[in-house]
Amino acid sequence: MTSGEAEIWIDDVPFFGPDQALATEASIITSLSCEFGPRAGDERCVSALYSGQFRVGHRPAFKARFGYAVAGTFPDAFSDRPFAIMVEIRPDPLQPGGFKLEQMVQGQPLLTGQLMEPSLTTLSDGAAEVSLQLDVGVDLPAQDWKTGRQLTDDATTRAEVEGMMRHAHSALAAGPAAIRQELGPMLEHLAATVGMTVEEAIATEYAPYIDKTMGFELQPFDASQSRLVIVGKGRLATLVPSPVVFHNAEIDETAGPMLVYWQDANGTWQIIH
Fold first, then answer.
1. Cα–Cα dist 174/180, whole Å
2. Predicted local distance difference test score (pLDDT) of residue 139
3. Quick check: 138 and 110 in contact, CB under 8 A?
4. Which residue among 60, 61, 158, 225 is the one 20 to 30 A from 267 at the CA level?
5. What percent of the residues of the chain are helix, what percent strand, and what percent coil, each to the nearest 5?
6. Which residues have a Cβ under 8 Å from the Cβ of 268 and sit 6 or more positions away?
7. Spatial distance between the Cα atoms of 10 and 42, rounded to a whole number of angstroms
8. 72-76-79 Cα angle (round to 5)
9. pLDDT digit string, tens, across residues 241-263
10. Residue 29 phi/psi, 5° resolution?
């Protein structure tokens, strides 16, 4: 991606968390692992929203390729390897201020993709939206949250979600063992997605939160300015901005795990999995 920001939604779940986006003033190339593990026979709806800005020396562009690799391997982004579908959004020379969409469909044995209509939509804020359907043949753990209760946007839900996030904050302060106990189901999905054990996933994906040498310090829990946000077609909830954050004073950056919760048929709150 060059000169802009992107949001990615998978089945109405924001990939980077609510009100979060991948942004850059120059260029960024990265590979991202989907933590919302698909199951054989699933059809996943993926929407990408891209807001591009023309900057001196940089023309806005967004390029995304969807595919899978052998468990435990992490090929470079856009390396010469198979993929299911690739989409690219670039400025349209025939429409000043507008964008055009290009696609390349290759397909993999366990993953195919196709654009959904309309293929490219310009939203009221000027962002370009492209939606795809991915047909998945990879058999990973089922997504239990999809069987959860429809949530109500009220004070009770907010208080209960805040309580769950307080538990997560305490676990992150206590270390890896407590993190596994509190966030275990989500971490199992993450580990299965990237071909790791849960311990390996914690040591790598959660490194900024457990490795003190990286300079990130857990901040005091503060939900006073947070609001309740419900996504996942009404079944997932979190607080935004997150009251669970780490700060690196040396580089003046903040980070934090994505903490999203659902309520099962018995009324028990659980981390997304």
1. 11
2. 64
3. yes
4. 225
5. 20, 35, 45
6. none
7. 12
8. 120
9. 999 999 999 999 888 998 999 99
10. -125, 120
What residue spans define the domains of the chain?
43-139, 144-271
Rounded Cα distance, 261 and 13, in Å: 12
CATH architecture designation of domain 144-271: Roll (3.10)
Q: Which residues of 222-253 are buried (b: 16+ CB within 10 A; e: fewer)?
A: ebeebebbbbbeebbbbbebbbbbbbeeeeee
Which of 7-11, 17-21, 58-62 has the least mean pLDDT? 17-21
**Residue with tokens 């026979």, as numbered in its chain:** 41
Residue keyed to tokens 């997150």: 242
Does the pLDDT of residue 217 top 60, yes or no? yes
For 8-74, where are the alpha helices, taking DSSP H only?
Answer: none
> In 3D, which of 55, 81, 56, 57 has the Cα closest to residue 68?
81
State the pLDDT at residue 74. 72
- Write down the residue that tokens 């052998």 correspond to: 70
249 to 4, 7, 202, 214, 255: CA distances (angstroms): 26, 27, 23, 11, 12
201 vs 63: CA distance, rounded Å: 27
| DSSP sequence for 150-210 | PP--SHHHHHHHHHHHHHHHHHHHH-HHHHHHHHHHHHHHHHHHHT--HHHHHHHHTHHHH
Contact 122, 140 (CB under 8 A): no
User: Looking at the DSSP assignment, which residues form a beta bridge with residue 7?
Assistant: 49
